[in-house]
Structures are given as structure tokens and as C-alpha cells.
């Protein structure tokens, strides 16, 4: 099996079969351990307080964006965690008020046949940030230390060699001027199960489920062991891991954004007062064109 073979399996093969399998797996697991019924949204943090805090953090992210672009900084942010840990929602909270020309999200699909023949890190390196960019990896090269290793999509020798090599690659990244932040979102088995069940019941989220989710669901301890060995091998002084509790989606989003702002030095750039100029309307007579208007049904 090549270095790239079967990478990123959690990103494909979604469909009704996966829903049936995940639901069945969830039912089996719930027999041995009572499911936690408390919602992750049950928190002292109200929606109003959350939105107020998020707005303030978004304003700071805009300042960071201007600083990154003005100073030519290169930032790479890695998000890892189990299925349902909240990676996608956290990334969305980071990027929803900034420019996609500065903040770029990378979520790679299954490798192509050509990519399977390449050096493992090659498909990721081409997405590393250039000056003035913040690149966010929604899962990353650490797939080799997690899903590939646990599910047998790489050999144990390949996994061990990866863990030995990746600190050197990340050292080269940092030495080249890249600011590298690595986050692991930690969720309990009870909360993960609740979220996976929610995906089954919500037609807007059903696309997130895949056959791989079921297999991962039944391999909790194996993933825990792989996670711990990954931390031991790759938690370095130049590229440390930061673990965020992700039982509550609102809290983890605020905590991670605040942490990012605290770990990337930036300042508020002076800005000119913006004011809309006066304009004149009516100097042009619009033609009567038979436009195809979108029906107003709402």
C-alpha cells in the first residue's frame, strides 16, 4: 500500500447506508453504556452572551486579518479531533466574518491515483500559507497518525516513520516563518454519540455521516491510544499541541478564537474614517427590460 493510499476516508462515501450503520452501531453501544441526554448547548452561557462575545472576537479577527496582510505573516492552523468533535463548526465561527482571500480553509478529499504515489506530505505542502495568508486545515497530515493507523490504511511502519518525521517537517515550517498552531478538540464518548445521533435525525447534517464513522465509533479506545502516541511524538517546543474541551460548542468556539488571538502577535492598524460620498441618481433612464424575476415565495 502506498503512502497516500486510503487517506482522508472520513471525507467520502456518505449516504443512507452509512446512516443505517451508524444508527445500528449507536444502538449497540448504548446498551452497554447509558447515553448522556444532556445537550451540549446546556450551558451557563446564554445565546445572547455567546453572540456578544463572538462579535467582539470577530472584530479582533478582522484586526488580525489586516495585520497579517499588511505585515505578510504566514499562519497555519491545524484542527484535529474525533468525528463530531466540532471542528467544522469552530472553523466556521473563525472564518464567517473575515475574507476568504486571507483566511483559507483546506479540507482535502481522498487522494488521487497520482497523489498516492507521492511523498505523504506532498499534497499538504502545496497548501502551506504564502505571505498574507491564514490557512486552516480541517484535518491535516495527522490523518496518518489517526484514522489511517487505526483503520489499517497504512502499515505500522509507515505510521511510526510519520511520527518520527513530522516534527522535522514542522520545524522546517516554523523556521521558514510560518506561525503554526495545532488544536485537538476533545469530546466525551457520550457527547460524541449524541451528536452522531443528531446527524441521523437532521436532514441538514446527514451528509456528514459515512461508513467510516461507524467503524470509528466502535474504535474509541484505539483512537485514544493513537491520539496519545501522536501527542507524545509530535508535541514539540516549536509546534505544541493545544487541547480544547469541546463538550459545549459555543464555549469551544469562543475559547479557541481567543486562544488564536492570544498566540498570533498583532496590532490594530490605523484606519481612516470611512464615509459614503454623495451621489446623484436619475441621470440615466432605465430601459424596460423583461427581466426573469425570482419568485418571491417567502
Describe the structure in brief.
The protein has 298 residues and is an alpha/beta fold.
Task: Describe the structure in your own words.
This protein has 298 residues and is an alpha/beta fold. The protein has a single domain, classed as P-loop containing nucleotide triphosphate hydrolases (Rossmann fold, 3-Layer(aba) Sandwich). 44% of the residues lie in helices and 11% in strands. It contains 10 helices and 5 strands, in the order ααβαβαβααβαααβα. It has a 5-stranded parallel sheet, sandwiched between helices. Helix 4 links the parallel strand 2 (103-106) and strand 3. The termini are far apart.
Descriptive key words:
single chain; 298 residues; alpha/beta; Rossmann fold; globular
Compressed to H and E, one letter per element, the order equals HHEHEHEHHEHHHEH
| Major sheet attributes | 5 strands, parallel
Supply the number of structural domains.
Answer: 1
Widest β-sheet, arrangement of strands: 2-3-1-4-5
- What is the number of beta strands? 5
- Report the β-strand fraction as a percent range: 5-15%
CATH C-level: Alpha Beta
Q: Do you know the CATH topology?
A: Rossmann fold
Report Rg. Answer: 22 Å
CATH architecture: 3-Layer(aba) Sandwich
Instruction: Tell me the structural class.
Output: alpha/beta
Q: Based on CA inertia axes, which overall geometry fits?
A: globular
Helix content: 40-55%
Low-pLDDT runs:
5-42
Number of helices: 10
CA(first)-CA(last) distance: 53 Å
The CATH superfamily is identified as P-loop containing nucleotide triphosphate hydrolases
Mean pLDDT, all residues: 88
